[in-house]
Structures are given as structure tokens and as C-alpha cells.
């Protein structure tokens, strides 16, 4: 399963992934759990991830894609 966060993860460096976690207020380990479909973020965390992803020159990770999975 490839969601927006997983695609973002694959295209990012370790430093970018760490920065996304810091800006989102979570850990890289928990971001990995979300990206690989093992955990679902709360709506608040999904919003924080979306906001943090806007600070990078990469595609946006929308909160809807995190909360409402296929």
C-alpha cells in the first residue's frame, strides 16, 4: 500500500524525515508506522503532518489521505 506519506518517505532524506517528525510533534518511528499502514494518526496529528509537509519543496501530504484511507 502506497499512501501519500509513504511516497513522501521514499522520496525524502533521513534529515527531511526527521524534520517532518519534529515539525509534526511526533517521532520518526511513529511516522513510519503511519506511512506503512500499521497505525492511523489522530485527526490532530494528521493536520500537524499536513502543515509540516507544506514547509518542504515536496508534494503535500493531505490530512484527508491520512485519516480516510482506502
Number of strands: 0
Please tell me how large the radius of gyration is.
Answer: 10 Å
Please give the alpha-carbon distance between the first and last residues.
9 Å
The overall average pLDDT, rounded, is: 93
Question: What can you see in these coordinates?
Answer:
- The protein has 70 residues and is mostly helical.
- It is 60% helix and 0% strand.
- The protein contains 5 helices and no strands.
- The radius of gyration is 10 Å and the shape is globular.
Please sum up the structure shown.
It contains 5 helices and no strands.
Topology record:
Blueprint: H1 4-10, H2 14-24, H3 28-35, H4 43-53, H5 63-67
Features:
single chain; mainly alpha; 70 residues
Amino acid at each position: 500500500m502506497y499512501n501519500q506519506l509513504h511516497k513522501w518517505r521514499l522520496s525524502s532524506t533521513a534529515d527531511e524525515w526527521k524534520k517532518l517528525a519534529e515539525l509534526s510533534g511526533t517521532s520518526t518511528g511513529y511516522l513510519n508506522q503511519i506511512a506503512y499502514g500499521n497505525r492511523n494518526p489522530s485527526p490532530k496529528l494528521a493536520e500537524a503532518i499536513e502543515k509540516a509537509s507544506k514547509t518542504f519543496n515536496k508534494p503535500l501530504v493531505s490530512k484527508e489521505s491520512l485519516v480516510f484511507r482506502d
